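Posting for a labmate who doesn't have an account.
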Amino acid sequence: MRFSHILLQTCFVLSLLAPSTFAVEKSQPPNILFILIDDMGWADLECYGSQFHETPHIDQLAAEGMRFTDFYAAGAVCSPTRAAIQSGQNQARLGITDFIPGHRRPFAPLLVPEVSDHLPTEIVTPAEALKRSGYTTGYFGKWHLGNAQQGPDKQGYDVSVVTNGGHFGDKFRTIPEMDIPDETYLADFLTDQTIGFMKDNQKRPFFAFLSHFAVHIPLHAKE
């Protein structure tokens, strides 16, 4: 399946940036902002019927944009889903059928397949495909498809800030290493990094991939 189909079928493709803030020429290709929320189920959103969680901002995006009602997840956990989005392929083809490095239980009655420890670098990602059309590409957040030698900067992303760890500055780390104040909330940090990338590249077509760690456990939030 072509990446254009993947982008259109599996995510919100957001072109909601105010013209007064990010002015572009009419002939310029559309900017793309891809937001991935880790471990969030479809029923967790108010716009899909949740009576417990309050999600007003996402509900607004759904009301002003497009909401999918029939779809399939590539996997039930993070790495397989990420591998499918970055490759356009079924996770079994890549050998990433569980989160990396996998959940081994050697004495269990049934053994799970071994899991590949990274996304193959020869895979053509959406970033690499879009770069051929003149896009500047950026990745911000959780990667979980390999170590620093197989990071987004090796997969077509011009700018990348990968995060690992918890939800606050004293708990999470960045690649490349950055000095983060202890009180920094990870979701705010990643959002600010992405907004900065979009502002820096507002005069050229860009593809920004914002990969939040929230709502993955441990569950931490600001008061």
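Reply:
Got it, the structure tokens are right above this. Helices lie at 3-10, 56-64, 78-87, 91-94, 126-131, 186-200.
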